[in-house]
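[step 3/7] inverse_fold.run input=structure_tokens len=383
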């Protein structure tokens, strides 16, 4: 999952680190002339680093010692880390430390952040999300002081992690809490699933029914895809396999009526959750969108969940936007995450429509569904 996103981000971290560090090393090479001068002025047998050790001079007059002390102070601000760094493990491993503290400037990172933005866009991250990530990373990096070469990589990684966590953090309601709340009112939680054909709505409903059964809740399924040939048979097959009650009418029946009956059944039988399957439709199909609105009007679902195929990247984001405009969605399930290397939809969709991703579909069997948590995603990408 998300392999190429992972590669892209670690590549970007490497590039930013290399660029900023190399420029700084070059700038510091130029400064070696200055360092040489200081050592000369001190006029002792000790070298530059020796000066910085606690007792660099054992010979010479008091006056000479005072000169040395003064010179040491003048270069102190450039060298205040040297002592600790000399004993630092990193130095032994050959990583360079900077003699002075460099402050990262906008100019240092501008070009390379543009490259990061391009990399994100190529990975199907939505434009506004890529821009937001880059701006957050820039704000975080500019003005930071670097003391040693690998600071840049660490800071960049942290900045990216923070930027991505922020992007993913969309307020979300816990479904368990909702079920419990509804139970207290003697009502089932009604969830309606929308999305275009083939994204995985029906499979996801079967997976979620299994998920809820394992949590000791009792679901009922409404076969409200009365439009597509074979849809009722497909969902009946799943319901039978997992042992869940299904409410169905004939092909071509009113989907809202099917959903209504399922809610009725759940209320009468004291069931906890109604899962309403719907026919796939293009987000541009007005008639079918109207049908969605009708189901919504009739059963007043507590949650409308958009089901999108992660593999379709930006298309999934655009579909979610359209469904949100038409019926108002409360959350997202992204399917086929198991086959998704890019991670663009997973990164973008919640931010773009400001609705949380609730679950990820991770395969074709009933147990292949996981609850989505922003921290989990961050760990997948940076862990
Ligand atoms: N690899 C993988 N395939 C999935 C996943 N979810 C659904 N599918 C497959 O996607 C295809 C379409 O699923 P279906 O539930 O019929 O989509 P619907 O038209 O939206 O109801 C089926 O072949 C499913 O097995 C998933 O998370 N991972
Ligand atoms: Mg279906």
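[step 3/7] decode complete -> sequence:
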């Amino acid at each position: 999952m998300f392999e190429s996103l992972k590669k892209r981000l670690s590549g970007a971290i490497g590039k930013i680190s290399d660029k900023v560090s190399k420029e700084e090393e070059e700038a510091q090479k130029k400064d070696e002339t200055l360092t040489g001068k200081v050592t000369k002025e001190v006029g002792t047998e000790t070298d530059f680093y020796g000066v910085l050790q606690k007792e660099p001079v054992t010979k010479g007059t008091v006056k000479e010692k005072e000169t040395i002390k003064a010179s040491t102070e003048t270069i102190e601000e450039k060298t205040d880390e040297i002592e600790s760094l000399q004993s630092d493990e990193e130095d032994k491993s050959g990583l360079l430390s900077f003699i002075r503290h460099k402050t990262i400037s906008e100019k240092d990172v501008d070009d390379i952040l543009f490259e990061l933005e391009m990399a994100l866009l190529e990975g199907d991250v939505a434009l506004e999300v890529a821009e937001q990530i880059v701006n957050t990373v820039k704000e975080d990096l500019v003005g930071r002081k670097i003391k040693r070469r690998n600071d840049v990589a660490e800071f960049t990684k942290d900045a990216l992690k923070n930027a991505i966590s922020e992007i993913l953090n969309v307020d979300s309601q816990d479904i368990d809490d909702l079920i419990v709340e509804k139970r207290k009112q003697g009502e089932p939680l009604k969830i309606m699933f929308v999305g275009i054909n083939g994204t995985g709505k029906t499979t996801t409903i079967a997976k979620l029914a299994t998920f809820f059964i394992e949590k000791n809740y009792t679901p009922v399924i409404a076969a409200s895809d009365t439009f597509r040939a074979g849809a009722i048979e497909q969902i009946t097959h799943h319901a039978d396999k997992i042992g869940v009650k299904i409410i169905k009418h004939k092909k071509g029946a009113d989907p809202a009526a099917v959903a209504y009956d399922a809610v009725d059944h759940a209320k009468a039988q004291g069931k906890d959750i109604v899962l309403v399957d719907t026919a796939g439709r293009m987000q541009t199909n007005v008639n079918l969108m109207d049908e969605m609105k009708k189901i919504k009007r009739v059963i007043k679902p507590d949650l409308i969940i958009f089901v999108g195929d992660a593999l379709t990247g930006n298309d999934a984001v655009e579909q979610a936007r359209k469904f949100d405009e038409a019926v108002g969605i409360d959350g997202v399930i992204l399917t086929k995450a198991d086959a998704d290397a890019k991670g663009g939809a997973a990164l973008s969709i919640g931010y773009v429509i400001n609705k949380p991703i609730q679950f990820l579909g991770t395969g074709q069997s009933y147990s292949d569904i996981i609850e989505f948590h922003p921290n989990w995603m961050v760990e997948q990408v940076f862990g």
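[step 4/7] annotate
The first strand starts at residue 97 and ends at 103.
Residues 195, 197-203, 280, 335-336, 338-339, 361-364, 368 surround guanosine-5'-diphosphate (ligand 1) (CB under 6 Å).
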